[in-house]
């Protein structure tokens, strides 16, 4: 099957177009699986982050964070730790994914309590930002019904409907086909109104042909506000202790 897909992609005339179509029944899934494969291709990743939250009047709130990530053998773990300002220092957000199972935990040092994020809370704002817990969760291809809306030489647009609970009716994912990275996402409600938009910029080739965005902006179109996330001091494939991705690790931040 992989050989046949390669021949189709290269445009070999010895294969009838119908055969190519049969070999690749869901082009959207093929593309999205490649995006996911590159997203999880690096075993260890650490970086510093800045979060800037803009309200509808342009006023800002600034946050400084550390980010840790691990991916291997269908297991993904990520940890965000707030460093500044003082009133959020030590707050930690842990996401654990194994296959299609996902668990998210939030540690609030003022309460000395670890809270497991329930399905009903996935649409809530994360720490007052324009990213929800769902937005920060995994993008496993098995969690979506996928449809290819358009494809040019450099970009594909995919409609995605989550098969379990979601705050959105559907999403449009824009994929850079040179990098197999998401450059934009649009989020729609049941009235087919776009309610949010994500833009990714300043891509960096971190390893081979694995690309990471150094800046992402989530726009809340209903509330006329936005949140910018930026990454710096990124290091890859330097081992991170296992305890980092545990409840004990959450409390030690």
Describe the structure.
The structure is a single chain. By secondary structure, this protein is mainly β. The chain has four helices and 13 strands. It has helices at 2-10, 17-23, 27-39, 247-251; strands at residues 44-54, 60-72, 75-84, 92-98, 101-108, 113-116, 144-151, 155-162, 170-176, 181-188, 194-207, 210-220, 225-236. The chain has a 13-stranded antiparallel beta sheet. A hairpin with a 2-residue loop joins strand 11 and strand 12 (210-220). The protein is globular. The termini are far apart.
Please render the helix and strand layout as text.
Blueprint: H1 2-10, H2 17-23, H3 27-39, E1 44-54, E2 60-72, E3 75-84, E4 92-98, E5 101-108, E6 113-116, E7 144-151, E8 155-162, E9 170-176, E10 181-188, E11 194-207, E12 210-220, E13 225-236, H4 247-251
Antiparallel strand pairs: 1-2, 1-13, 2-3, 3-4, 4-5, 5-6, 7-8, 8-9, 9-10, 10-11, 11-12, 12-13
SSE string, helices as H and strands as E: HHHEEEEEEEEEEEEEH
User: What count of helical segments does DSSP give?
Assistant: 4
State the strand order across the main sheet: 6-5-4-3-2-1-13-12-11-10-9-8-7
Number of strands: 13
Low-confidence stretches: 1-23
Q: Tell me about the biggest sheet?
A: 13 strands, antiparallel
Class based on secondary structure composition and strand pairing: mainly beta
Shape: globular
Fraction of residues in helix: 10-25%
Radius of gyration, in Å, reads 19 Å
Round the mean pLDDT to the nearest integer and report it: 89
* Fraction in beta strands: over 45%
Give the termini separation.
47 Å
């Amino acid at each position: 099957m992989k050989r046949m897909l390669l021949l189709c992609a290269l445009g070999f005339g010895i294969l009838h177009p119908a055969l190519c179509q049969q070999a690749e029944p869901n082009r959207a899934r093929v593309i999205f699986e490649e995006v996911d494969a590159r997203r999880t291709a690096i075993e260890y990743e650490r970086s510093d982050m800045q979060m800037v939250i803009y309200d509808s009047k342009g006023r800002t709130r600034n946050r400084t964070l550390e980010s840790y990530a691990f991916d291997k053998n269908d297991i993904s773990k990520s940890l965000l730790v707030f460093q500044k300002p003082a009133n959020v220092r030590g707050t930690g957000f842990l996401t654990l994914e194994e296959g299609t199972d996902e668990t998210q935990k939030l540690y609030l040092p003022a309460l000395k309590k670890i809270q497991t994020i329930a399905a009903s809370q996935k649409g809530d704002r994360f720490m007052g930002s324009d990213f929800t817990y769902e937005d920060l969760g995994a993008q496993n291809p098995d969690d979506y019904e996928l449809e290819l809306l358009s494809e040019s030489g450099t970009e594909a647009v995919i409609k995605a409907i989550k098969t379990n609970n979601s705050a959105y009716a559907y999403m449009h994912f824009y994929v850079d086909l040179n990098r197999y990275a998401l450059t934009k996402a649009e989020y729609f409600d049941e009235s087919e109104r776009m309610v949010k938009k994500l833009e990714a910029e300043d891509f960096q080739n971190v390893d081979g042909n694995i690309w990471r965005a150094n800046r992402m902006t989530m726009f809340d179109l209903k509330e006329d506000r936005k949140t910018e996330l930026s990454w710096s001091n990124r290091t890859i494939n330097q081992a991170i202790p296992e305890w980092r991705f545990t409840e004990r690790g959450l409390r030690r931040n």
